[in-house]
Amino acid sequence: MKKAIVGIAIGALVGCCAYTHRRVIKALVKGEPMPKAPAWHIWVKPEDRRD
Hints:
By secondary structure, the chain is mainly alpha-helical. It contains two helices and no strands. The longest helix has 19 residues, at 2-20.
């Protein structure tokens, strides 16, 4: 039972991560340029962030 709960939790986390990064994953699969990062990603250069 404990393994099933851990597996479901890990699956949910992976699903959330994939949904959050869907634009980046799509760009990687299609070979397109990387999309700009959100404005709150302060570790990314300002020219590579969205306004």
